[in-house]
Amino acid sequence: MALKLARTALALGAAVSLTAVPLPALAQNVAVVNGTPVPVARADAMLREVARPGQPNSPQLQQQVREELVKREVLAQAAISKGLATDPGVKQQLKLAEQGVLIRALIADFRKTSPVTDADLQARYDQLKKQFGDKEYHARHILVPSEDTAKDIIAKLKGGAKFADLAKQYSKDPGSAQNGGDLDWSPANAYVPEFADALQKLQKGQYSQTPVKTQFGYHVLELDDVRDAQIPPLADVKPQLVQQMQEEKLQGFIEGLEKKAKIQ
């Protein structure tokens, strides 16, 4: 009987504490601090901000968010009571924070209303395939500063010297010299035009008979092999392409707004 009475007393106490705040306020707010409501919508916004992908919206997380919002409200009220809200520096920071929120909202809205369509994606993929070309070249090169040195290297090749050995000895290209001049597989358009033109004229196993001049110096080329271009299917590169195109669309949107703006 005593236990039953104790439980009844606890229940009554809980009821009294709840009635201390109007029921509609409890439905709309997670707390009321010194008479100032902390709305549920604010808690929802913080939950979206702090929740990690795949993390369940647990009662524990909700309680942590409530405690954080209450703490913020207490501190913000203390700052206001000290007159800090009217401090010029604080007002500027508040303005910057407000702009940041608005900008993020604008960008989110733009991404939602201006998505990358499947047609746009396919067109970009087809364009990239065309630019890439249908062939890839496994080439080597030796880069030297003078035409005479390049001619001497070609003479040594004709005399039976190995291309890789000469590359290690003479090439000024730090990225390939110690690998025997190896440039790995690449499409022709990965190189500057003069280099690409000379490369595409070679047959498998041939080296250039005359130096190839580019903006970097003089090259001696050797073509190890040619193969059909290894272009990944659209499905494999879709996430990267979508991200790239979204950023391009966003940049265009921002530039358009800046051009329309009257700036004095």
UniProtKB/TrEMBL annotation:
Residues 1-27 form the signal peptide. It catalyses: [protein]-peptidylproline (omega=180) = [protein]-peptidylproline (omega=0). It holds the Pfam family Rotamase_2. This is peptidylprolyl isomerase. The gene is cbf2. Residues 134-225 form the PpiC domain. Keywords: Isomerase, Rotamase, Signal. Belongs to the PpiC/parvulin rotamase family. SUPFAM superfamilies: FKBP-like (SSF54534), Triger factor/SurA peptide-binding domain-like (SSF109998). PANTHER family: PEPTIDYL-PROLYL CIS-TRANS ISOMERASE HP_0175-RELATED, PEPTIDYLPROLYL ISOMERASE.
